[in-house]
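tool_log.txt
---
The assistant was asked to compare two proteins side by side. It first ran the structure predictor on the initial sequence, then on the second. Raw inputs and outputs are pasted verbatim so the downstream comparison step can read them without reformatting.
(1)
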Amino acid sequence: MRFWSRLMIEREGVGERETGPGFPFRRPSLLPLLFLLLLSPALAQSVPAGWPDPFGMKFERQAFTPLKPRAAVLPNGLVVYLIEDRSLPLVSGRMYVRAGNYYDPQEKIGLAALHAQVMRNGGAAGKDPDAVDLTLEGLASSVEVASNTFFTEVSFSSLTDNLDQTLQLWSEIMLRPDYNPQRLELYRGRTLEGIRRRNDQPVGVAQREFIARINANHPSGFISSTQSVQSITRDDLAAFQARYFRPRNAVLALSGDFNSGEMLAKLTRLLSSWNTGAAELPRLPTYNPAPRPTIYFIQRPVTQSVVYMGLPTVQAYRAGYAELDLLSNVFGGGFGSRLFDEIRSRRGLAYQVGSAQQQGFGFPQPFLAVSISRVEKTVEVVQAMLDEARKISAEPVSADELELFRENILNGAPFRFASRQAVVERQARVHLLGLRPGYYEDYLEQLTKITPESMLAAAKRYVRPENFVIVVLGDESKFEAPLSRLGNVVKVEVR
């Protein structure tokens, strides 16, 4: 179980890819070795007496100069970002198409994900699926297609010497997919099996139900079903591609061993016939930023309870986001945070506990807290999490807390520029998401100006525990007290 994975889409602040039903926590701010040294007396006694206290160590903030990709626009309107890198004979690229899960019709939830699988594995330009795979294998190249919240991504990796052949296959898979009927049924079957088994993981169940409840009646909260996946046809896949795969609805990110001018000329020839008409993006329903505060309970015969709680706040990089992002670190961002120290370390109630301010683009996302706890302490854990939320919304954080977690964020900033491909891909996502130039540098500058008072103002405005949506998964027969003691409880039948 990947406790440190995040919750939604790629995080623009640090470039982490959101995958899977794990916790939406940041990585721990201290090395696991230091954690072991503090907890193990035997190890602690072996540390030389003259060594400094790891928690008291101070480091100068590292200055860095971000890489700037070159930007160009092809004659068909496709925006391309490029960074040359001659260190290895490799070229990588990723096309982002504004065609994510949010655009699934409500009666066909799962369309974007199934489309991505069959687009890559269903043959292209008259070549059968096996022939495509064998050709790529012979070239030592890869082409992959994946979908997420906002985008369908079509990526490739190639040796420089085999770039022309790889680009040809990449473009055919993207623009001339065959959607082989047998492969459609294969991946439909795999998707249906995933739906059948998705309730096997308690954390995934609680996470999914929390997302559905806090984003009720909005595509961000829709859940696929056997019926919705069964209804998807080959014609639906072809229509999805025809509707959204347009050059003005996409951005290409490239890095590697190439000359930028030659690469742009090559792409101009290769993509000259791509349909340049406008993509017809659907109108999404209005997002409800104030879902009804309720405790949703899921009965499961488990030995550990899972708790999600929170409420929508602000969109990413808008006013108040920097304060909430830092506040979520102080509240539950790992070692030294309020939730970790009180609920896990001092009281020993939870195996994992933490919080995060999720990133929302186009609509708010939640400030949330999560725990996995001893089932016989479920009600106490929920109460303790709510108590800590009330405290952080009523009293300023200490100057030491603020500085510790601010430095964690600021000192981690250079790592988002460590890979040229990561930099150019981030720039492409930023373009499609409509973020303004310099948004991240402004965010870092805002962090340096945050005070305990400004954090408290944001907490009072946005972090209101009385309005939390709460999802609890556990075995009610083992709870130490009725969950109804904490508020109105609605029992949920898992889908």
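(2)
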Amino acid sequence: MAVDRAECIGSGQCVIIAPRAFRLDDAMKAEIVDPGGEELDVLLEAAYACPTQAIYVSRAGASLFP
């Protein structure tokens, strides 16, 4: 899992949906806190909800989103 900080606009949807995995830093950009803190379906929901698609989800080397 990764966040493209150049694309992140700090909408906070990821934090609302997956608060154990994401937080907004001092620059109001999403950062990963604990990628194992949420179930895969919740991480995918958070990635899908990102208005700029700045969240990338992968498992075992396979891209799951986007």
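---
observation on (2): The radius of gyration is 10 Å. The mean pLDDT is 97.
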